[in-house]
Amino acid sequence: MENHIVRVHPSAEDFPRSEHLAWKIAQVAADPVAVPAESADMAVNRIIDNASVAVASVLRRPPSTARNQAMARPMSPGSTVFGVPGTYAPEWAAMANGVAVRELDYHDTFLAAEYSHPGDNIPPVLAVAQRQAAARGLTGEDLIRGIVTGYEIQVDLVKGICLHAHKIDHVAHLGPSVAAGLGALLRLDPETIYQAVGQALHTTTATRQSRKGLISSWKAFAPAFAGKMAVEAVDRAMRGEGAPAPIWEGEDGVIAWLLDGPDAEYTVPLPAPGEGKRAILDTYTKEHSAEYQSQAPIDLAFLLRDRIDDLDKIRSVVLHTSHHTHHVIGTGANDPQKFDPDASRETLDHSVMYIFAVALEDGVWDYSTSYSPERAHRPSTVRLWRKISTVEDPEWTRRYHSSDPAVKAFGARAVVTMEDGTVIEDELAVANAHPLGAHPFDRAQYENKFRTLAEGLVPDKEQDRFLDAARNTASLGPDELDQLTVTFDADTLAKAPAIPDGIL
């Protein structure tokens, strides 16, 4: 890897394009280096993972809304949409599938200076691959190269540039990464990719209010919208249109006015020329449908519940954890909605206090019932929930930001104080499903996650067909990329909510 210093350059300064971060990203995306076998294998895992969580959300309202919008734009050749037959405009298919993947907060994650869900790269890259397969002779190998490149760029940006400190949403790293992934997929020249990266960043930068307070369904739409914008940016760049430049380093650019300001300096690692893209191997998926910082606390709650005789006799629970967990999903956020039984599912998903209470009581976590209104209103849960708080522990924050995989942690230490003064405590650094956890996910676990979430929604024959196609992604020809979707039968799909008409 090569480290690149990124800072603001005044307009009067001679700052050659070859030094722009967007150009360096474009060079990485255009590099024809082979995809490492391990990276290609992990890309297949994540195709399966995305399909798992998309299938589980198809009948929910936000994915139904996005799907209806896509279905208003049939196109042949076009792109598939989870749940329904036919093909549609790629940017709208990317949007629909992106919402379905993101809705349950249940796919992969990477955390460093910034947060991310790199699996958000897959829906737009797959949609464009399907649309362009026949015209460009794209194969499963091309798809994998595009996905691995999208992961690489997003992970590298997340390692180098913090957005949340300035209340900028993490999808500002996703727009450029999707543009780069599409550039690699289509084998575009660096000039075109450079312009697309700049446009994608410019059009996908927004505030973090989508993940603050009373969180709405826009949390699922935000990354999907970024993917859609990136598809459109690449389309414009391919037609010869340009972008603001230098987009990160300009005097009125992103760093100068949205991030750390004119005197800031960032270090962004990127693969050297000819170096294989391996960042996808640094990412990790979720066993539980909850914000990633809740994964280890859920597993920790399962461990602790057997040591607590009577949950009603708990006086307090304090989770000692990282800055991020405390301030985003903990009591440090100062969001009263995180203790509100009437809060949205999206808000409960971002309340580690609620999640820890339910995990302590139930000993299991379910993507649907654990968030149901009935579950959130259970009197014993509300009482326990309001006894739980978080505090930032500098050691957990240090481990969160560590670049050493053996040290990096996203967990907590739980201190449970009983009414009689007895203290019960334990800690867990990483979730069980993490590569360093008690039960790391491998292909078998990804496939089991798909079958579990598809149960009762997708016939076994369709499950088998999809998994067979996914396992063999690298061998798929241009006329076979449309196999990487899952279609519901009409009776099941009819259970989706009715969506009112809009403008489009």
From TrEMBL:
Q: Could you tell me the EC number(s) of this protein?
A: 4.2.1.79
Q: Which reaction does it catalyse?
A: (2S,3S)-2-methylcitrate = 2-methyl-cis-aconitate + H2O
Boundaries of each MmgE/PrpD N-terminal domain copy?
19-266
Q: Which GO terms describe its molecular function?
A: 2-methylcitrate dehydratase activity
- A Pfam short name: MmgE_PrpD_N
Reply yes or no: does the keyword Lyase apply. Answer: yes
Gene3D superfamilies, sorted: 2-methylcitrate dehydratase PrpD
Ranges of residues in domain MmgE/PrpD C-terminal:
288-472
Has the keyword Transmembrane helix been applied to this entry?
no
**What are the entry keywords?**
Lyase
The organism's place on the tree of life at top rank? Bacteria
What is the enzyme's class at the highest EC level? Answer: lyase
Query: What PANTHER family has UniProt attached to this entry?
Result: 2-METHYLCITRATE DEHYDRATASE, 2-METHYLCITRATE DEHYDRATASE-RELATED
The family assignment reads: Belongs to the PrpD family.
Question: What interactions and quaternary structure are annotated?
Answer: Monomer.
Q: What is this protein called?
A: 2-methylcitrate dehydratase
UniProt source species: Corynebacterium provencense
* Gene that encodes it: prpD2
